[in-house]
Design brief:
Order of helices and strands of chain B: HEEEHEEHEHEHEHHEHEHHHHEEEE
Helix content of chain A: 55-70%
Structural class of chain A: alpha+beta
Number of helices of chain B: 12
CATH superfamily of the domain at 167-305 in chain B: Succinyl-CoA synthetase domains
CATH class of the domain at 167-305 in chain B: Alpha Beta
Strand content of chain B: 15-25%
Distance between the termini of chain A: 34 Å
Radius of gyration of chain B: 76 Å
Shape of chain B: rod-shaped
Oligomer: heterodimer
């Protein structure tokens, strides 16, 4: 997982849009911000898409160590 | 049954006159004895025991309402010692450890209570007291009182302070859930998570949520998730915890009011969202959690954003960025075009000006051309000459006309012309003077008369 938190990336992205829409930038600055913005939006989309569904139940085994088991398995054990 | 004294309602045993032999036997009740007036002398033990019997038999089961005072805190043995009082009197009281652990609230001085127990006299101390089996707060349920006491204590520790509350992450990478594995709450949570953000990663730490042992189970489950989290690498950690259960009565939800559960929530390093019961149920767990949800489903909604909405928002932002950049670029392009246009105009203008100057200069030069000047002069000269001719011509004509006119006038004045009109000139002969006056003539003079055509020689006949 990248260090940048999703929420921070989203906030940064919105800030970049604001700055670009204000239009007060030199062409170089605008291009750089555009690049950053596209990269951030790609990152965010990735985070949203790549996350995989996983539902597990925590328990301790006989040795007292932690164990994770998928939910359906444990349900059938009940 | 027993005659009552006026002062206190404690029934008294009738005074017995007995001899030494029967000093310690209580079976003399009612037996008539010889009224030998002898002073009865008790030992302390005897009298105390008698008193003990009377008291304990009379007050085997009593309810007493009073205010607690003189409570110095729980004894290491687990027994509680305090006094019960009202405006008029004081009664010592004890709660033995066995009964003490059933008391749901804290014994405090000043609390108004209703107690059930029996009177006991402890011979070695010679003191009587109320041995309490059950005690309830007056006017409020004991559960309620316990709740109020716990709330006060926790509030004074600052555990309800809003500054304590941590932020719930916007998009958690992993969600922990403490609830009953078979309960409706878990199903609701998982359903909502799936609907909003189908790729959520959930770790369940199951616990019994009501009944005996629930409070220990819940706190253990919270601690387990925290401990487990410590063992995970940064990127895989649980960033939020939902602790809760579905709806139920106050008794069903009671585990979430217990101190051990509340402390576990406070101690959790992972931020906690409480989700206990329904909309209007509030437990102490809700007060100390970082965020309170009215129901487990609501908790799932608070904890995770809607994926579809997020993706849309991202697309929107991407579009906005592209548009904004486009606009900026277009803006620059416009400026560029405008500058170019102005450049062209200016250059054209400059060229025009230059051309104009050139034109006027060359025209001026042309004008200054000597050949031209010569031609000009020549033409001028010719013109002047012509003018002279013309003027001369006019002049001559004028003079001619003047001459003719004079000639005409002269002619008009000419005597010969007069003759033309019928007049005649008369001359005297022979000299030939012109006669203007008739008196100058005498009859018989000879005159010559010049007529227009010819002359007449005549003689004067008469003068008038």
């Amino acid at each position: 997982m990248p260090e940048v938190k999703f929420e921070d990336a989203l906030k940064k992205l919105e800030k970049i849009v604001e700055e670009l829409e204000a239009g007060d930038l030199s062409l170089d600055e605008a291009l750089k911000k555009y690049q950053d913005g596209i990269e951030l939006s790609r990152l965010c989309a990735q985070r949203l898409e790549l996350a995989k569904k996983k539902i597990e139940v925590l328990s301790r085994n006989k040795k007292g160590e932690f164990e994770l088991k998928p939910l359906e398995e444990t349900k059938s054990e009940e | 049954m027993w005659p009552l004294s006026r002062q206190n309602k404690i029934p008294l045993m009738p005074k017995k006159n007995v001899d030494a032999a029967s000093l310690n036997s209580p079976d003399l009740f009612g037996a008539s004895v010889a009224p030998a007036k002898r002073r009865h002398v008790y030992t302390v033990s005897e009298i105390t025991r008698d008193i003990k019997i009377i008291l304990e038999n009379t007050f085997t089961e009593v309810w007493v309402e009073a205010e607690i005072s003189d409570f110095r805190g729980p004894h290491p043995s687990g027994h509680l010692y305090f006094s019960l009082k009202d405006e008029g009197a004081v009664l010592s009281a004890t709660v033995f450890a066995g009964a003490a652990k059933d008391i749901k609230f804290k014994i405090e001085n000043g609390l108004k209570v209703v107690c059930f127990g029996r009177i006991d006299l402890y011979l070695p101390h010679g003191k009587y007291k109320l041995v309490i089996e059950k005690v309830e707060p007056k006017g409020i349920g004991s559960l309620q009182l316990a709740l109020e006491q716990l709330k006060k204590k926790l509030a004074s520790e600052g555990l309800f302070a809003p500054e304590r509350k941590r932020r719930i992450p916007y998009l958690p990478s992993r969600i922990g859930v403490v609830t009953s594995q078979s309960g409706a709450a878990l199903k609701d949570i998982l359903k909502v998570l799936d609907r909003r953000f189908c790729s959520s990663c959930v770790t369940i730490s199951p616990a019994q949520v009501q009944g005996e042992g629930a409070k220990e189970d819940i706190s253990r489950a919270i601690e387990a998730l925290n401990a487990f989290n410590e063992s995970l690498p940064q990127g895989e950690r649980i960033d939020v915890l939902i602790v809760g259960r579905g709806g139920g009565s106050m008794e069903d939800l009671w585990a979430f009011n217990e101190e051990v559960v509340v402390r576990a929530i406070c101690a959790s390093k992972i931020p906690v969202v409480s989700a206990v019961g329904h909309e209007h149920d509030w437990t102490i767990a809700d007060l100390v959690a970082d965020l309170r949800a009215p129901t487990p489903s609501a908790a799932a909604e608070l904890v995770v954003p809607e994926k579809g909405e997020l993706l849309q928002r991202l697309e929107g932002l991407k579009g906005d960025i592209k548009n904004a950049l486009s606009n900026i670029a277009l803006g620059f392009q416009d400026s560029l075009e405008d500058l170019l246009h102005r450049l062209k105009l200016n250059v054209a203008h400059i060229l025009e000006l230059s051309a104009g100057s050139l034109d006027s200069a060359s025209r001026k030069l042309e004008l200054l051309n000597p050949v031209l000047m010569i031609e000009q002069y020549k033409a001028r000269a010719v013109d002047l000459a012509r003018q002279i001719c013309v003027r001369l011509g006019h002049f001559l004509k004028l003079k001619e006309a003047g001459f003719n006119k004079a000639v005409e006038k002269l002619s008009g004045l000419s005597p010969l012309n007069i003759l033309g009109r019928g007049y005649s000139i008369t001359f005297l002969l022979p000299q030939g003077q012109i006669i203007k006056d008739a008196n100058a003539l005498a009859a018989g003079d000879a005159i010559r008369t010049k007529l227009h055509k010819g002359q007449i020689i005549s003689k004067v006949m008469q003068v008038e």
